[in-house]
Amino acid sequence: MTVSEPSHPAALRLVEMLDLADRAVEACLSRITTSEGRSREQWRALMLLDEGAATDGAEPAGHTMGEIAARAAVPPPTATRMIDKLVSDGLAFRRSDPWDRRRVLVHISPEGHALVTRAALDLDKVLGSVMTDLPAADRLDIRGLLERLGAAAGVLESPRSA
């Protein structure tokens, strides 16, 4: 009896490499999540809320609970409890949507932004050195490929423009 070759060796190797990358990111994130008492899902929510924050001093756009649940990869009731915890810890706040008062948007607080900034600096110490060794075009290629993969897998709505 002979062992047959995998029908898609390139795909299997890609999955193996992405799994390795996920474990590396998890190892980096776990140092931060453990020291800050946050779950990975809370980090996903905080990173979403922090997008566009504090570059010009303007408040970033708020996000709906549906957006947060999708980004954090949790069911909506879990997202609500998670945001309740972030709000009670002073890392986020809720505000009525100025265009639709029935809708509530979640925003990152200055304390939450400071926490994400500290985490980004810690992550950059580990991951940044790897990325800075790559040419800018390769970094964009990697980002583009990962975004396309996320979109194809249904975990990212659509790839962002680079």
UniProtKB/TrEMBL annotation:
Cross-referenced Gene3D superfamilies: Winged helix-like DNA-binding domain superfamily/Winged helix DNA-binding domain
Signal peptide start and end residues: none
Keyword field contains rRNA-binding: no
Keyword RNA-binding belongs to the record: no
UniProt domain HTH marR-type: residue ranges: 11-151
Record keywords: DNA-binding, Transcription, Transcription regulation
SMART domains, per the entry: HTH_MARR (SM00347)
PANTHER family, per database record: TRANSCRIPTIONAL REGULATOR SLYA (PTHR33164:SF64), TRANSCRIPTIONAL REGULATOR, MARR FAMILY (PTHR33164)
The name this protein goes by in its record: MarR family transcriptional regulator
Organism: Actinomycetospora flava
